[in-house]
Automatic annotation (TrEMBL):
Main localization of the protein described in the UniProt heading: membrane
Membrane topology: Single-pass type I membrane protein
Any GO BP annotation: blood coagulation
Subcellular locations according to the entry: Membrane
Domain LRRCT: 92-143
GO CC, any one term: membrane
Keyword entries, A-Z: Blood coagulation, Cell adhesion, Disulfide bond, Hemostasis, Leucine-rich repeat, Membrane, Signal, Transmembrane, Transmembrane helix
Domain LRRNT: start-end pairs: 25-62
Protein name: Glycoprotein IX platelet
Highest taxon of the lineage: Eukaryota
Claim: Iron is one of the keywords in the record: no
Position of the signal peptide: 1-23
Amino acid sequence: MNKTEFISVAGFAISLLFHMTQAEVCPSTCNCKSLGEMKGLHIDCSSRKLTEVPALPVNTKRLYLQNNSLTSVPPGALDSLRSLEEVKIFDNPWNCDCHILYLKLWLEDVSAASLANIRCATPAPLKKKPLSQLTGNELGICKRLLPVKCLETCLSVLLLTFDTLDFMQQL
């Protein structure tokens, strides 16, 4: 076998392996269709009673997750979907607390149209409110607590500032 034949056979083997790998990575709970060679996949996971987003192929172009039981999406779960062109993720009982922030920010970057279709199911004060309209105050306490060391230092600085202001007022 000469070099050209070897490259052709190797290329065919890699192509075959690529297509086999794509078929293997389709979540078992979803239907996957190829959109043509090297064009990506259409992943339909709608109406499957899913409570979490399954592991998805990186070449997903269309993703349908609507009408499931999703309440949140773990941070980073959708970051590998760089080829995504369409996502439908509405009609899920979204819990609009601090944990929904990843999904909100991800959809702002990827699909504003999908974000507009998402409504909160819980907590009660936010029921039926569009996720796109939530503010930081409505998402609850999303800030990480400051480390104790920082709190001690910050408190010392704050007390020193008040002492200085008090001293200045006496002058």
